[in-house]
Backbone:
């Protein structure tokens, strides 16, 4: 059980800033997610916390005590590496058993304890059939589960999981999301989890940190990240499909552009009026669009249906409003229009986001 | 037509190499094989076919037996020491960035130096009158009289071995270093995070992972050491007595100072067979060692 804090942590490789001025606190027992595209600095951050790399600036604190000078052995964090980092000459069993044989833990476990623990974790990860195999005899997904298993056999102060289920097939990934969240809640062990997949982050994390090019874009609960993205990057990175962004001009309570909205709520009007020249980007989630007939007075925009991607129960519909503007909307599949059809779009004003067109920051 | 050429293209491409190999390896081998069954001298080869007489003579030739023992003793001792020292040096310098670079460069020097030059240098070092070692032994008052290292039956073989170790340890050092640096870095990071001690990391990771390469280096070096000739030729000429008389040197003397090429050919064939048997045993041994280590 532990609370981890990073204060203004930076890491440069040569001239390259892998991580810049990173600060966050991961509370005891929290499921903390580092979310960002590849190259954002997620693995670097994990390696800095693990102790494999040393930061070029800033401080890392565990329960208020600086640990930057501690060796990885002393930190007692369990890490699942993105590249698996399995011991190539050990069987799966020996790979998973190895952390339990470390001098600091060896006394706690008898041979039987170790075997039981490994088998228990292997069963949960469904690799119990593979215990006598060598890593090179496994598929990518199996290796990833072994790497995860080697992490989970331990009882560390913090779990660090670097894209631990990225290489599993969709079905298994879905199941593992639930399993990991369950394990984490049962054990209550502080967990830092990195992923490029916003769905994983939204479905598991208590707190999400959105990382981009080594810098923090936003830290918040999943609700905050999803509903009130702090800037355009977060708005367009989170959500599938991501938030629709349309440039508009605000004047006298009305937004005009590829869409036209007469703002009915005072709160929206206030925010929209905050930018002096009235140049705004308005953002709305695909689920906040509903279809009306093209002639309807209540429609905010009229466009042509370009693509319909159906997923069984729901469908994503891409609508071209004008040459530069395509919005995507998510509706139940049976209400999906035909490709080529002219439709009216009605936008729910309750969840509008406004961004300054110049600074691309959210207007609160 | 095209398929015909595509099928034979690989053969066509290796053909020149095959020809060269044939000329420099197979033809001499057959020639030596033929020689060994004849009574031959350097000036008059293939004088008479004498069957296995040369081989029979070899089995009762005590000097030859002694030279084989010398060769195996020499090769095994120097290879063991060189591999051990090279491996320990490689471990010591693998994580040294600057110093490691300097040592690596210096290590190349003995490899660049012609073996004859190395042998000459060591002859000067061992010289009883003006040699470096005697000079210091005298100066520091350790010894009163000069020691003739190369003329002393107890010291001659160790002296040659020392020169050989100086010459060849860089070879094993560089190969061991390359092997260590090729080990998967990520496994070491994982081991650190898993809390393994340095000894555990060495014993459970480094040793099993690097030993296949080190054993190959050992075998490789052993095969080269069996052919030792230049050091013996220049430092002791097989003496004193036949203490440092190794197989290749004995064959040279039979063939090129006694001009008995038929007998020399038979001895060569026997050495070849012996080396094949020894290496086969060592390869089996390697597999056993590797099994034990994991």
Residues:
């Amino acid at each position: 059980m532990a609370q981890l804090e990073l204060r203004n942590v930076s890491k440069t490789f040569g001239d390259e800033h892998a991580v810049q001025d990173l600060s966050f606190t991961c509370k005891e027992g929290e499921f903390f997610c580092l979310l960002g595209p590849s190259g954002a600095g997620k693995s670097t951050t994990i390696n800095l916390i693990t102790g494999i790399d040393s930061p070029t600036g800033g401080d890392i604190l565990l329960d208020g005590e600086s640990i930057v000078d501690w060796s990885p052995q002393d930190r007692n964090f369990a890490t699942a590496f993105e590249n698996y980092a399995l011991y190539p000459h050990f069987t799966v069993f020996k790979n998973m058993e190895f952390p339990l044989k470390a001098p600091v833990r060896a006394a706690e476990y008898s041979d039987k304890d170790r075997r039981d623990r490994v088998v228990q974790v292997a069963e949960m990860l469904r690799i119990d059939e593979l215990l006598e195999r060598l890593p090179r005899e496994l598929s990518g997904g199996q290796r990833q589960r072994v790497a995860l298993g080697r992490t989970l056999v331990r009882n560390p102060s913090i779990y660090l999981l670097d894209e631990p289920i990225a290489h599993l097939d969709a079905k298994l990934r879905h199941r593992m999301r639930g399993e990991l969240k369950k394990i984490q809640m049962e054990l209550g062990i502080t967990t830092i989890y990195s992923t490029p997949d916003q769905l994983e982050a939204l479905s598991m994390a208590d707190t999400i940190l959105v990382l981009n090019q080594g810098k923090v874009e936003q830290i918040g609960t999943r609700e905050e990240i999803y509903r009130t993205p702090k800037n355009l990057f977060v708005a367009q990175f989170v959500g599938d499909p991501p938030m629709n962004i349309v440039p508009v001009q605000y004047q006298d309570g009305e937004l005009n552009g590829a869409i036209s909205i007469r703002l009915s709520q005072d709160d929206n009007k206030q925010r929209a009026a905050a930018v002096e020249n009235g140049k705004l980007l308005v953002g709305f989630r695909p689920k906040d669009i509903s279809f009306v007939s093209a002639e309807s007075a209540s429609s905010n925009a009229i466009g042509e249906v370009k693509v319909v991607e159906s997923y069984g129960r729901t469908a994503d519909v891409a609508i071209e409003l004008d040459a530069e503007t395509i919005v995507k909307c998510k509706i139940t599949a049976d209400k999906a229009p035909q490709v080529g059809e002219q439709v009216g779009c009605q936008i729910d004003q309750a969840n509008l986001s406004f961004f300054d067109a110049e600074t691309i920051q959210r207007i609160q | 037509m095209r398929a015909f050429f595509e099928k034979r293209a690989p053969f066509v491409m290796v053909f020149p190499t095959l020809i060269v190999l044939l000329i420099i390896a197979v033809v001499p081998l057959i020639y030596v094989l033929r020689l060994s069954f004849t009574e031959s001298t350097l000036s008059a080869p293939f004088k008479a076919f004498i069957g296995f007489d040369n081989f029979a003579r070899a089995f009762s030739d005590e000097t030859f037996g002694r030279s084989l023992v010398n060769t195996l003793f020499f090769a095994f001792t120097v290879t063991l020491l060189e591999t051990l020292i090279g491996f320990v040096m490689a471990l010591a310098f693998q994580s040294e960035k600057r110093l490691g670079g300097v040592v690596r460069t210096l290590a190349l020097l003995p490899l660049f130096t012609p073996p004859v030059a190395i042998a000459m240098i060591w002859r000067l070092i061992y010289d009883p009158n003006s040699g470096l070692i005697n000079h210091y032994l005298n100066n520091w008052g350790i010894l009163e009289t000069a020691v003739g290292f190369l003329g002393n039956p107890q010291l001659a073989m160790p002296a040659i071995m020392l020169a050989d170790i100086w010459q060849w340890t860089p070879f094993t050092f560089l190969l061991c270093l390359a092997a260590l640096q090729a080990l998967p870095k990520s496994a070491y990071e994982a081991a650190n995070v898993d809390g393994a001690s340095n000894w555990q990391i060495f014993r459970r990771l480094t040793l099993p992972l690097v030993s296949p390469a080190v054993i190959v280096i050992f075998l490789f070096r052993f095969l080269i050491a069996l052919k030792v000739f230049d050091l013996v030729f220049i430092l002791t000429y097989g003496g004193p007595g036949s203490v440092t008389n190794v197989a290749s040197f004995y064959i040279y003397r039979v063939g090129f100072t006694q001009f008995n090429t038929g007998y020399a050919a038979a001895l060569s064939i026997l050495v070849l067979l012996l080396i094949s048997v020894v290496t086969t045993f060592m390869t089996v041994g390697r597999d056993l060692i590797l099994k034990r280590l994991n």
